[in-house]
Amino acid sequence: MTITNSQSRDRLGRSPRSPGALLRALLAEPGPTLVMGAHDGLSARIAAEAGFPALWASGLCMSTALGVRDSDEASWTELLGMVARVVEASALPVLVDGDTGYGNFNTARRFVTRAERIGAAGVCLEDKVFPKMNSFVGDGHVLAPVAEFGGKLAACRDALRDPDFMIVARTEALIAGAGLAEALDRAEAYRLAGADAVFIHSRKPTVTEIAEFARAWEGRLPLLIAPTTYHATPLEEFARLGLSGVIWANQSMRAAVTAMKRACHSLWAEGPVSLEPTIASLDEVFDLMRYQDLADDEKRYEARGQDGA
Amino acid sequence: MTITNSQSRDRLGRSPRSPGALLRALLAEPGPTLVMGAHDGLSARIAAEAGFPALWASGLCMSTALGVRDSDEASWTELLGMVARVVEASALPVLVDGDTGYGNFNTARRFVTRAERIGAAGVCLEDKVFPKMNSFVGDGHVLAPVAEFGGKLAACRDALRDPDFMIVARTEALIAGAGLAEALDRAEAYRLAGADAVFIHSRKPTVTEIAEFARAWEGRLPLLIAPTTYHATPLEEFARLGLSGVIWANQSMRAAVTAMKRACHSLWAEGPVSLEPTIASLDEVFDLMRYQDLADDEKRYEARGQDGA
Amino acid sequence: MTITNSQSRDRLGRSPRSPGALLRALLAEPGPTLVMGAHDGLSARIAAEAGFPALWASGLCMSTALGVRDSDEASWTELLGMVARVVEASALPVLVDGDTGYGNFNTARRFVTRAERIGAAGVCLEDKVFPKMNSFVGDGHVLAPVAEFGGKLAACRDALRDPDFMIVARTEALIAGAGLAEALDRAEAYRLAGADAVFIHSRKPTVTEIAEFARAWEGRLPLLIAPTTYHATPLEEFARLGLSGVIWANQSMRAAVTAMKRACHSLWAEGPVSLEPTIASLDEVFDLMRYQDLADDEKRYEARGQDGA
Amino acid sequence: MTITNSQSRDRLGRSPRSPGALLRALLAEPGPTLVMGAHDGLSARIAAEAGFPALWASGLCMSTALGVRDSDEASWTELLGMVARVVEASALPVLVDGDTGYGNFNTARRFVTRAERIGAAGVCLEDKVFPKMNSFVGDGHVLAPVAEFGGKLAACRDALRDPDFMIVARTEALIAGAGLAEALDRAEAYRLAGADAVFIHSRKPTVTEIAEFARAWEGRLPLLIAPTTYHATPLEEFARLGLSGVIWANQSMRAAVTAMKRACHSLWAEGPVSLEPTIASLDEVFDLMRYQDLADDEKRYEARGQDGA
């Protein structure tokens, strides 16, 4: 695996720094850090090998992989089960999409402490009402009261063990159509409540409202975005706006959807002849999952065992 | 979802027949039934929409999705957790790859009864030693004693509730290089021990050894194959050999691997501009996961609630 | 295990009737059915051996066993994991404490369909707001709007597969101090929304308000209670009131708490000498868990295996 | 909770030292450390409150709580799910019963790294063949080849992140009737393979064979025992033998079995009248689970929320 951030690491590629410390260091570097979305162990491994320095465990993508809607249909522990697979698949720090925290301040802090325990680097919580609906669906997005959400952030902060574990506050004010001033007010309130970074979300086709927010925000805390709809914006523009993190939240899953649809239709209609040359060989899969390492380890650890058997 | 086997079904597409009965009926139809491999809820939904009548919950693919090797690295309950997502994602019968049964007759029957409970249609058990290695990797495949594996099949049969739930016995004799006669002897022993079908596995690039087996077998039980390496064989040949089921075990996962690699490399190297038009839109994902049904149900079930709130 | 309701059952003590049908039949019998609370596989097995015909998978007790508070601190899938252990531990029908349904109509129906899938007989939902607090704690119990809760019940009914699976509507009107009329109005609304039975909950030290409710209810649906605080009421009184089910919800867990406290204090203070004769022997545990059956099965299923090895 | 080992701890009673470091320090103290068995969050909380400084997550007791036999009937991840509840229930270090490691060196190291990740202090592995049978049942205990088990220990050691995480090697040589010399040879081989402590197991009614082993061992590594059958031995004798840890492995579970049996029989035969005064009140349960802390936190974190709502 390519480890892009040069730290002293052990034989297995693991850093002595905590996942939270790694993520903080990345976001503090000049220019936006590119964070790749993952939804299971496989997509995490692929993203790590491609060179990304951090992962986003996407609620939409994990839900889709599980076969359910991104409307709190999977339980928070089911999602953390998938997060654990994402975390274990590489040595990269993982920022976890924690949705609204699955209830109140108490369920939220249970989620973040469990996420910390399984090795995540941070959790992003959004200021909507539980059960939430995916931000790209419909117009019924209801914002949580500011003070309630602030209390939730504070409770999470207080419950964590590692002071470097990141709490990212995501405001859905622009998604809910509440306007720039509301978005800024909320971000500031969340900063005061203890958030370590702000995720400002937009579903506009251009970067305009993000740009307005970023300029008015003036770097009070690291700022993250997920340019799913305004993907045509050049990366240089995100750098100019002083953004700390750019999350490619769902592209990997969407690529898999298209590929699996094609594979199924091709197999169903005509069999594997034309499909076969276009898909990964099994050896490619085995390389990705490091089967050779296991064969080597069998020699190392079982040699004596076979003598004794 | 296209339901290809015409049964009376309820409003949600579910048959009154048990999953096992559905699978048996499919395998009894003339010509080989095409069974599509799935590894999570998403891949299962896609396979169902493409028209396949049955699914294979692949051990290799579920392991890969979880980020681990197909060498019993995932626990049997972790795998059943994924199987449950495959089962819930469609109304199709699901045949579960049960590997070696995760130990002895007792762990095997715990696996199959749990698989039955969560709605699977059948389990395939293979005659290797636990922990196993994927059949396409290396040359160290050790076969279990015939009688031990027969006892395992009998214990599973006795523990099941639905007499239609299928126990498929997979012999790895050809994979282990033990020859055709051994493969046939084992298949016959497993038939006598209570297997409902036989899965004969080969990793040769041509269908030759499968064809020899099939002719000598003479249809004593339904015969299944997974033509991963001998994919160039035309479907008509499988029909001529009297095969009951053809499993496309891992093509969907392999297609996803290639697509996610491309997506990650493209995003990392140049951003989303050239990638975006080649991957599923979010609306396509929302259609696949039936978000509109949820919106409709909200109107149906929450209407009165909003009046009363 | 003693099976008190005489049905034709298979070799493993399992009835051909669905769990829901078994529970309905029990509640239809004259006189109140005694339902024993359980919180894991062990407590379920013990309750079944004692003769109880049905089990209550208690939210309070499962939460306590998990080490958390009965305030939706465990996720709904964690609780269903424990429910599965309760279900698998005996052949008895299990009524599951589903709390408020963990969100809205959609999370509730996901809970009940999953409960049905793992073999439960019914789910009880209560008309409070998520996250809930245990009914015996504090005075902040907020009732859900009637119509919203009715929509939740209807959504659950529509999503189930087995028409005999029971939806029990529990009103917390008396717990919330809303009075008898409100409790009756709510119960009637829930009946009209599709509930199969009503659970009327009270935390008064006497049966008075339960009695008033029962008389006014006039048997429109089967009525269940959990006499945790009004335990001094004789069973005959419950029969006179026409109750269908009496749930001993938490006594087994509370007995275990006292016993484990004593065991720990005794071991810590003086070692095992005086404790040992007061606790179950290991053989008693092995009998309860039927280790002899496994030994017998080893002979049955491994005999041939050992010859062949 | 009473914290008996005086360390600087945070507001929530957590030590800055790793769980492994805490456990090592305890075992290094003069005299045997008393380690209390636990099988779920509740039993762990009770043991911690009674004053024990460390916990044993018992395979027998967790299996029994789940309703299955201690013969690898629960999967390793199911057991780790219970271990996580034990770990989260207190600030005490938890030594995990890892049975045989659930297969080979590879499954064993997956188990120990996952145990480390969820916050355990160490894992104990035993030198029997998978699937194992509980040491107190029957005479069919088959020892693993020494070198194979040594390779397993080495693989676990190499895979761990925290050098203080403890690998305890348990030899079943005495249980299998292989004699003292074999037990000593195995313990020495496991020490050389990297074990941090040795668990010598016996099911004799007296301490004799443990005493012989301990004298011959001469303190080469910390020695642990579980005096389930030789419980009449005074603690002073264990101190004289230089033992580092005494595990009360299953007494708490056995106490719960007796209490729950009594409760069920009493409720079934006569109702709750005579039972009620003998079991913990709900308030006692709520104290144990710290419901008041949640009420306090609601005030702290929701106050502003309610203003804003």
> What kind of oligomer do you see?
homotetramer
CATH class type of the largest domain in chain A: Alpha Beta
Shape of chain A: globular
The count of helical stretches of chain A stands at 12
The major beta sheet of chain A can be summarized as:
8 strands, parallel, barrel
- One letter per element, helices H and strands E, the order of chain A comes to HEHEHHEHEHEHEHEHEHHH
Structural class call of chain A reads alpha/beta
CATH superfamily of the largest domain in chain A: Phosphoenolpyruvate-binding domains
Provide the CATH architecture of the largest domain in chain A: Alpha-Beta Barrel
The proportion of residues forming helix of chain A, as a percent range, comes to 40-55%
- Radius of gyration of chain A, CA atoms, in whole angstroms: 21 Å
Q: How many independent structural domains of chain A? A: 2
The CATH topology of the largest domain in chain A turns out to be: TIM Barrel
Percentage of residues in strands of chain A: 5-15%
Separation, N- and C-terminal Cα atoms of chain A = 36 Å
> Which spans of chain A have pLDDT < 50 for at least 5 consecutive residues?
1-6, 305-309
Q: Order of strands in the sheet with the most strands of chain A?
A: 1-2-3-4-5-6-7-8
Using DSSP, what is the number of strands of chain A?
Answer: 8
What value does the average pLDDT of chain A take? 94
Pfam families (chains A, B, C, D): PEP_mutase
Family (chains A, B, C, D): Belongs to the isocitrate lyase/PEP mutase superfamily. PEP mutase family.
EC number (chains A, B, C, D): 5.4.2.9
Protein name (chains A, B, C, D): phosphoenolpyruvate mutase
